[in-house]
């Protein structure tokens, strides 16, 4: 997990040393609640990108997941690995869990997620200044469901 955690160190590590950051991640109850997914290079087994998926409390009998901590090692960014991983995880969750409602919080330019068909929630529904809540579903328009926007996960 150290390799997975360190993918996001440059963005989320703040003033922590790498060792302190990995310890914080290892101790995180939030990280223990989710399920991690990674994409790796077939031959070398090098980890190329990672993310975590959280089960969110359903409403209206909806199956809802939160996607978070999407990261790629700095030297591998802009190669499409995170996009591939997001698409594959959504495909797997749709197939295996019948899930078709996803939220994420973008700490980067939202255009990245818009290319994957996520939409920004309207400004009145946003809960945070620096992280934009986004939604994706092949079946439901965000305005057609009655679901409380999740807190940052």
From TrEMBL:
SUPFAM superfamilies: Acyl-CoA N-acyltransferases (Nat) (SSF55729). It comes from the Bacteria. InterPro entries: Acyl_CoA_acyltransferase, LAT. PANTHER family: LYSINE ACETYLTRANSFERASE, N-ACETYLTRANSFERASE DOMAIN-CONTAINING PROTEIN. This is N-acetyltransferase domain-containing protein. It comes from Viridibacillus arvi. The lineage of its organism: Bacteria, Bacillati, Bacillota, Bacilli, Bacillales.
């Amino acid at each position: 997990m150290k390799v997975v955690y360190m993918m996001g160190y440059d963005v989320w590590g703040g003033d922590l040393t790498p060792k302190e950051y990995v310890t914080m991640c290892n101790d995180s109850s939030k990280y223990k609640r989710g399920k991690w997914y990674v994409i790796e290079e077939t031959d070398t087994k090098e980890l190329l990108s990672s993310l975590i998926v959280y089960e969110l409390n359903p409403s209206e009998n909806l199956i809802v997941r939160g996607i978070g901590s999407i990261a790629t090692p700095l030297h591998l960014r802009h190669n499409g690995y995170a996009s591939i991983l997001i698409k594959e995880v959504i495909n797997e969750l749709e197939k295996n869990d019948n899930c078709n409602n996803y939220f994420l919080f973008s700490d980067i330019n939202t255009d990245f997620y818009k290319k994957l068909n996520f939409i920004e929630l309207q400004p009145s529904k946003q809960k945070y200044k620096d992280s934009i809540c986004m939604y994706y579903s092949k079946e439901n328009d965000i305005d057609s469901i009655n679901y409380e926007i999740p807190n940052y996960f």
